Amino acid sequence: MTGANGFIGRHLVHELAGAGHAVYGVGHGALDAAESRRLGLQSWINGEIDAANLNALAAAHGLPAQIFHLAGGSSVGISIERPFEDFSRTVASTARLLEWLRGSAPNCAVIAASSAAVYGADHVGPIAESAIATPMSPYGQHKLMMEQLCGSYAQSFGIRCTIVRLFSVYGPNLRKQLLWDICSRLAAKEQVLTLGGTGNEIRDWTDVRDVARLLASVAAPSSPAAFRVINGGSGRGTSVADIAAGLIRQWGGNAVVRHSGVSRPGDPLSLLADDAVLRQIEFDWRIPLDQGLADYVAWYKGQAS
């Protein structure tokens, strides 16, 4: 697994290791052997996604049966501030991974985490995988380039790739973005929370524990296609204002939320998945939003104490 030390990666390692799989990781972050084992990793290489590190894993443990590719940029804001860094993390790392697979493990299947940011703005209602991708940030553009690389290697060299376009993933251990920001301000006892945008922005919120189950489930070879794209969303939209209100309710207290009306660059009004493909493969989202928000607040208060 590339990016195994990231927010989604750690949950996915737990999911796969719990199902009896041997999981080996490469990516950024210092993990000692004890921490690696606690996460469920058999081994961990702190470094780039490149041939040297992939060869080292293969020499020690054999060629992989599947690669979960989670490494890449993780922030629209950072991609706007430092676009080349985001390109390197997302596109260049994918190119190195695919080239290594072509030469060393062509029968290995890839499950790659992409983003709904590839769809861009101007979508009303559920967005199908067939929608024209018009990303409005370097982050979304680079995710789309990553997808196109996977498609190219599937078509030209038979590398089997499944792309999962994730929507708004949240849950325990997420230390950035809206939920973290709101909880941090509630912990600081702010009584008036001013958030960007209008509050009417619609997102498809999915708990990371469900997302880990989804990524693990689509790894099972069920499609003859060498390349496929799947929306990793629930098909249920919730506004930013309702998320904020739900968090405050779970936290307790009487903080008031106001919205500045100023949207961030690269921030679409609506990103909602058409979940028809997931319904076809009978994937079920098990964690309702209220429970997910309650669990997030409990985790936040626990790690802060």
From TrEMBL:
InterPro entries (UniProt xref): Epimerase_deHydtase, NAD(P)-bd_dom_sf
A Pfam short name: Epimerase
Tree of life domain: Bacteria
All copies of domain NAD-dependent epimerase/dehydratase, residue ranges: 1-220
Biochemical pathway: Bacterial outer membrane biogenesis; LPS O-antigen biosynthesis
Protein family per UniProt: Belongs to the NAD(P)-dependent epimerase/dehydratase family.
Record-given protein name: NAD(P)-dependent oxidoreductase
